Amino acid sequence: MDPIALALSLLDNEAPNKGIVLQHPPIDEHHRTYVVPTFQGRKQIVRASLVPDSMFGQRLDIFSVAVRQLPPDPQLLVGLLTTARDFRRARLCIMDPQNPALSVVATFVPAEIHEGAGQRLLHALREVAAVADSLEGHITGVDVE
């Protein structure tokens, strides 16, 4: 089994232990969409997907959109960069400069994926969801889900 398919299989096995469910049946072995419980009954949609990578050939990105339209506020961006220092695995990304959406991403390269990596993958999935949910609440004040 290739590393990305293995990682997603491990996540599929670990996710129900934390109340995480697949949003719909998997389309293929390299893509998943999870519904992750966060705070106070809220939920966050988190995607996990194979991404081509020039250095490693491929990688697994676990990501969630925190804010669909990021306000152009320099103080907000400085605050986000300051906050990001405390993240364990997650990082912040702006995916499209024309329509700036703030996403939270955790990445695993093939060398990090093995039979015992299920808990690390699950922790990263939950961190991405929690950070995205928290940023969404602080910046927009609403649960977009």
Report on this model:
It is a single chain. 31% of the residues lie in helices and 29% in strands. The protein contains three helices and six strands. The protein has helices spanning 3-14, 74-84, 118-139; strands spanning 21-22, 31-37, 43-53, 57-67, 91-94, 102-108. It has a six-stranded antiparallel sheet with strand order 1-2-3-4-6-5. The longest helix is centred in the last third of the chain and has 22 residues, at 118-139. The termini are far apart. The model has no long low-confidence stretch (mean pLDDT 87).
CATH topology: Yope Regulator, Chain: A
The low-confidence runs, each spanning 5 or more residues with pLDDT under 50, are none
Tell me the CATH architecture: 2-Layer Sandwich
- What's the overall average pLDDT, rounded? 87
Principal-axes geometry comes out as: globular
Per DSSP E runs of 2 or more residues, the count of β-strands stands at 6
Strand content: 25-35%
Structural class: alpha+beta
The overall number of domains is: 1
How are the elements arranged and paired?
Elements: H1 3-14, E1 21-22, E2 31-37, E3 43-53, E4 57-67, H2 74-84, E5 91-94, E6 102-108, H3 118-139
Antiparallel strand pairs: 1-2, 2-3, 3-4, 4-6, 5-6
Key traits:
Yope Regulator, Chain: A; 3 helices; 31% helix; six-stranded antiparallel beta sheet; 145 residues
